[in-house]
Amino acid sequence: MTAVFAYGLPVRPSRGLLLLTGTVIGSLGIIVVAQRWLQQWKQPPLTPAATPAELWRRYRWSWDPSERRDAALLLAASDRDSPGRRQRLLQGQAWGQAQVAAAVLVQQARTADQLGEAQSADGHWRALLARFPHHPLSADAAYQLSSENSALQRWLLKHHPAHPATLEKAVHAQQAMHLARWGAAHPGAVAVIRAACAPTASTSTTHRQHLALALARLGDGQRGLDCLQAAPPAPATAVAIGRSLLRGDAAQRHLGETVLVRMARTANPPVSGTTLEAARLLSEPLQPDQALLAQLPEPLRKHSADVAAAQVRLGQRTAASVFNRWPDHPASWQLQWDLARADLLAGRWAEAETWLAALPHDTLPEPLAARQRFWHGFSAAKQGRPQDAENQWRALLTQHPPGYYSWRAAVRLGESTLPPLAQATPLPPPPSSWQPLNSGDPVVDQLWRLGMVQDARETWHSRQQAPLNPDRLTAEPSPTERITDGQLLLATGNAWRGLDSLWRSSLRLVGEACSTRFALHQQQHPRPFGDAFTSASDEAVVHEALLRAIAKQESRYSPGVQSPVGAQGLMQLMPATAAEVAGHPLSATEITNPDINTQLGALYLQQLLRQWDGNPWLTVASYNAGPGAAGGWRTPELQQDPELWAERIPYPETRIYTKKVLGNLWAYLHAEEAPCSG
């Protein structure tokens, strides 16, 4: 028998086998324990909030190769000026089949392009396409490699139809139908679609429906109608054309109404998403056209909350029947406010309070719930019930983010007011701006966490985009989808659309926790162009919070935006006003320069504050409507009940503007004061 030795001692084979088995089991146990120990001590995932020192420490010393790769990607994403260093950081990091390897290959290819290493870049693009063909980032690879490869171009159009890289190819290839269905708003797409809509173009009737729908959704309803060449529009096309035309002059509005009514009367079935939307559009005016609504099919009238609300305004039915049947519908929310506001302005406090109590507070979105609570308290105070008023206002302050109505509640409770606005007061530095995206899409969330925000935005858009269908409305994004969209747009520099998306989500988000509502509120009050606003505040001796409150409402922090009447820049100054404040004419480039525009806007606000002795109501109203108009609205009510004074501003635009700007002002002054922790 052959001797088996263990630890220098001879043992029998059976004992040797047992010893070997025990050694293996013991080793496995040590490994499991070690893994658990390492997992226990593993640090949180790296994010863009990590300092460069922390990223370098983990890149060099972390035991986890995945963590080292994350650190390399984050360092590369933040180091845009040193492609050579980025190349060294990313070398050897594209290992494995985890999806993050696709992000490494993209960064490696882009870095090689920046260094002028075309062959190396092509190699990385080819590796990405071969290893991760279904990853959204592979669209970039196909775009780069498909210039001479028609098969790859077709693959790109089929598998990633809404990706910006694909849409760019479609623009170059003049593929109007693809652009109409997947990305009419992409730069250059409109010209391609219009060319395909020309009377001389050999475009089929079916394709013209798609092209017309795309043009109408972009706001060009007349061109969309012309594109059809007298053919009746499909349901969704009719809705888009009608919506666009209703925003035009009297003749266009009449044409839009005709298109919507005709579609609603001929639709089968009579009640659908498209016909309900047509009914909503026709019911929108505060004083709806009774004859117009009467032309809608009876089943549609019976099933439309918007028509029912319009009938209340026309005196044809009771408001209670609408609230009882459609308590969660935006038409009921708007009707409640319209009825309550009319009674508030007439001093009918008990009636107003009845309307304000018609819908439960917790069935309303955040901004509407705050409005309801303030005016409920106001009506109670006017009826001699101060404790009820205090209860409503106290609940508003403790359960809602800071805004217009929480400001007014605080003032009514005697607890707080605005600081002097004619002071050079900077805002404190904002907290770390990075937060998890929580989009629900793991690839998008990972790209966001690794600092690849543009790729995250493109991936999100390409996955959310549904093809346009002329026969049915495209599903509206949910409030949570709008929040993700808004965050990504803001992060990639599109504040105009990003802030709009966040605001729209706040008007539909019901029942969320206070912490969620506060986070959404904070996202709606960013602080870009920090140096420009700080400098303008100091130069003009105007509180930075007021400057930001104006800029957010005027331009949504978009320097290139221009109003229909010609106002320009962050503070939306008319050229004549800018020249008057500057003391000399300015070029368009100068007016839209953030530093110059913000400074001139601050100087103009300084003049208004001086003219109105620091009164915030008149100052803000004057910025929108002009000092002459605002001065004509002064009444004793401005001192006694300024909230009612604001509701009586005869220009609807200025009325809404004044409340929003003052709400922005309060929000910026109390940006870090979370109302609750729940």
Protein architecture, described:
Strand 1 (4-6) and strand 2 (9-11) form a beta hairpin. This protein is mainly α. The model is unreliable at 1-13, 16-20 and 31-40 (pLDDT under 50). It starts with a strand and ends in a 9-residue tail after the last helix. The chain is built from 40 helices and 2 strands. Strands 1-2 form a two-stranded antiparallel sheet. The radius of gyration is 31 Å and the shape is globular.
Task: Record keyword descriptors for this entry.
678 residues; 40 helices; mainly alpha; 64% helix; globular; single chain; disordered N terminus
The number of helical runs is 40
* Span between termini: 75 Å
Strand proportion, as a percent range, falls in under 5%
Give the assembly state of these chains: single chain
Number of strands: 2
In terms of per-residue confidence, which ranges show pLDDT below 50 for 5 or more consecutive residues? 1-13, 16-20, 31-40
Provide the residue-averaged pLDDT. Answer: 91
Major sheet attributes: 2 strands, antiparallel
Which percent range fits the helix content? 55-70%
What is the radius of gyration computed over CA atoms, rounded to a whole number of angstroms? 31 Å
Query: What topology, given as strand order, has the largest sheet?
Result: 1-2
Overall body shape: globular
* Alpha-beta classification: mainly alpha
